[in-house]
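hey can u run this one w/ S-adenosylmethionine bound, need the structure tokens asap thx
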Amino acid sequence: MRPGTDQQEAPGTLYVVATPIGNLEDITLRALRILKEVALIASEDTRHTRKLLTHYDIHTRLVSYFKGQEARKAAGIIAALLAGQDVALVSDAGTPAIADPGTILVQKAREEGIRVVPVPGPSALAAGLSIAGFEGPVLFAGFLPAKSGQRRVLLESLASQNHHLLFYEAPHRILKSLEDCRAVLGERRVFLGRELTKLHEESLVGGLSEMLALLSGRPAVKGEFVVLIEGGGAPPALPADSVVEKLRWHREQGDSLKSAVQAVKDELGLPRSAVYSQALALWGKGKHAA
Ligand code: SAM
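ok here u go:
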């Protein structure tokens, strides 16, 4: 209650704040202001968060909120929110509740009618995806299961997906995970983002076998990984109508079959064979020429 009134204190706000995934400069101005202004910061590892706060001269009180104790820890934080205090939730790196603690606190806050506000910023998922150069939709799988059998079952369920597959992996499991990916998904193109935004940042693109050979040839595999594996489902249907239409247009301009195929292939970004077979039919040179 507010002193002198019979009104209940309005609950505080839960801010879910993204913090750097390596480079301390990767934090938004808003995140710094919120971390300074809230009454309490709920942190996955208070010693880790303290380093960030010290760097930015922030002295807000920290409480721990870590995996395995989430439900118990959430109760105290919810009590503070209900008493009218604003709270910021941070994880060790990146965005809380993305393969990190946070979901239970967010759920409980919602159940209590507490406002939950995102303060977006770094995430290894976005950082990796932004530099992989893979076109098309992506399915984020978080961490793959730690046990090979379970990992393979999950990978089998995803094998026919057209979506690229993005997951997080720790250095001690990366080789085994990539081996399982190759065994279940077959040879595919893969992007590996290692130690992104850190001193030894590295991004690698190649076939799964190539990446396995490269990493296993190193004396030690170190650092955190974002892995993006090319989707493996049926290739998108060819826009046959537009191929034929475009070929017909070139033919009407008096272009040769060869130059029309080249132009349409380049324009639509299709394999030469896909355009050539239709050109043969149109020019009346194929088996099934109309
Ligand atoms: N919530 C975090 C986020 O939004 O990025 C992810 C936390 S999860 C516990 C940690 C995993 O994220 C690591 O094992 C690694 O796969 C990935 N990761 C975190 N930082 C990374 C970095 N700097 N470079 C590459 N991957 C990173």
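The pocket of S-adenosylmethionine is lined by residues 21-22, 91, 93-95, 98-100, 123-125, 168-170, 193, 195-198, 224-226 (CB under 6 Å). anyway lmk if its weird
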